[in-house]
């Protein structure tokens, strides 16, 4: 006598496109993983397993939008955005190097070089 075989275990999780968009949005806002999982009604392990790319994509898209807005503000003449951009992206600092301050041409070349070639920062061991 053949008995019907029953599948064991849970029903596989199927994430809809709408759920993926919500996960990306929440991830982009910086919502912690445990909270995203609670909002979606799934475990953190399931969220990682099935939606890892969405978590990464959400954060990347949000960062891209903010960087684009910062860039646009800097290009349009917002001085604060320009200062932030040059300090973070070009390695510029407040004050200056006494020897380069004496030669403005040397200072200008150094600044341009720092902006074109990423500055390698030393890692501080704690």
What does this structure look like?
- There is one protein chain.
- This protein has 126 residues and is an all-alpha fold.
- It has two domains: 13-76, no CATH class; 78-120, no CATH class.
- It has helices at residues 17-29, 33-40, 44-75, 79-90, 98-102, 104-116.
- The longest helix has 32 residues, at 44-75.
- The chain is rod-shaped.
- The mean pLDDT is 81.
Summarize the structure.
This protein is mostly helical and 126 residues long.
Task: Spell out the key features of this protein.
single chain; 126 residues; mainly alpha
SSE order and pairing:
Blueprint: H1 17-29, H2 33-40, H3 44-75, H4 79-90, H5 98-102, H6 104-116
Helix pairs in contact: 1-3, 3-4
Sheet having the most strands: none
Mean pLDDT: 81
Helix and strand run: HHHHHH
Strand content: under 5%
Number of structural domains: 2
What's the N-to-C terminus distance? Answer: 70 Å
Structural class: mainly alpha
Helix content: 55-70%
Number of helices: 6
């Amino acid at each position: 006598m053949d008995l019907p075989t029953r599948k064991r275990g849970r029903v596989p999780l199927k994430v809809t496109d709408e759920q993926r968009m919500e996960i990306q949005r929440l991830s982009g806002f910086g919502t912690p993983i445990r909270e995203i999982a609670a909002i979606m009604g799934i475990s953190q392990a399931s969220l990682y397993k099935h939606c890892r790319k969405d978590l990464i994509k959400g954060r990347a898209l949000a960062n891209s939008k903010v960087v684009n807005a910062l860039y646009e503000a800097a290009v349009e003449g917002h001085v604060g955005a320009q200062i932030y951009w040059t300090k973070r992206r070009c390695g510029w600092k407040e004050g200056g190097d006494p020897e380069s301050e004496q030669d403005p041409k040397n200072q200008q070349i150094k600044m341009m070089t720092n902006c074109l070639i990423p500055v390698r920062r030393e890692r501080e061991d704690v």
